[in-house]
Amino acid sequence: NAGVMQNPRHLVRRRGQEARLRCSPMKGHSHVYWYRQLPEEGLKFMVYLQKENIIDESGMPKERFSAEFPKEGPSILRIQQVVRGDSAAYFCASSPSVDSGETQYFGPGTRLLVL
Amino acid sequence: GQSLEQPSEVTAVEGAIVQINCTYQTSGFYGLSWYQQHDGGAPTFLSYNALDGLEETGRFSSFLSRSDSYGYLLLQELQMKDSASYFCAVNIPYNNNDMRFGAGTRLTVKP
Predict the structure, then answer these.
(1) In angstroms, what separates the C-alpha of A72 from chain B's closest C-alpha?
(2) What is the distance between the alpha carbons of residues B82 and B12, in angstroms, rounded to a whole number?
(3) pLDDT in tens, A2-40
(4) Residue A42: what pLDDT?
(5) Which positions in chain A touch B41 (Cβ < 8 Å)?
(6) CB pairs under 8 A between A and B
(7) Can you tell me the distance from the alpha carbon of A77 to that of A19, in angstroms, rounded to the nearest whole number?
(8) Smallest Cα–Cα separation from B100: which of A54, A104, A40, A44?
(9) Mutate which of A6, A35, A104 to disrupt the B interface (most B C-beta within 10 Å)?
(10) Total Cβ atoms within 10 A of residue A96
(11) B101 and A99 in contact by Cβ < 8 A?
(12) What is the pLDDT of residue A28?
């Protein structure tokens, strides 16, 4: 059973470009979470999605950031008009459809560098 | 909202025991989770407490006191490979899997 997959692992963008980060959850998981982590800091919650629904986006900036988890295909975190402050590691996690109450499984992360 | 507090750094020697504390404030609470993250790696799940008391998993144990809004991670027989960051996280409503993380404790194990 493949784990959570994220691509790309590293992404370099110039200021003003768009960044698209992809996350494929573990097989059978329909809950996806996105986190941002700055160097030497903790994981900051951004958004929680179920298939075709955004459940909680309280941690995501209102402008330039959007997320989706379509019925088919991976979850996408999209950052428009990137700025240097967007440079960070972005982790995706998934959890099972039923309430396990225990575990989110994390992907390897995407390291975004904005020049 | 939620807030979690844990020490920023802890240093210990091989073979020792170390306790990493976590206090939390949250408007909703299902349980407390612990994750380990090595430099450049992804967080990996260590343990989860939904009820008061101690949960033991090999060299690692985790404790929760809901009345005190407090928990800790206990690492025994420390090894060099345990050097990593450790995060506590509260499981909150929406469903049991929704979590918010503390800032992390960086553990350094010395020979």
Answers:
(1) 22
(2) 10
(3) 799 999 999 999 999 999 999 999 988 888 999 999 987
(4) 86
(5) 108
(6) 66
(7) 8
(8) A44
(9) A104
(10) 17
(11) no
(12) 84
Instruction: Calculate the CA A8 to chain-centre distance.
Output: 12
Cα B72 to Cα B2, B38, B51, B89, distances in angstroms: 18, 19, 13, 11
DSSP string spanning B20-89? EEEEEEESS-SEEEEEEE-TTS--EEEEEESSSEEEEETTEEEEEETTTTEEEEEE-S--GGG-EEEEEE
Which of A 58-97 lie inside 8 A of B, CB atoms?
Answer: 91, 93, 95-96
The tens digit of pLDDT for each residue in B54-84 reads: 999 899 999 999 999 999 999 999 999 999 9
Q: Which residues of chain A neighbour B22 with C-beta distances below 8 Å?
A: none
The C-alpha torsion from B51 through B48 and B6 to A3, rounded to 10°, is -160
Confidence band for B3, pLDDT divided at 50, 70 and 90: confident
Residue type, A28: G
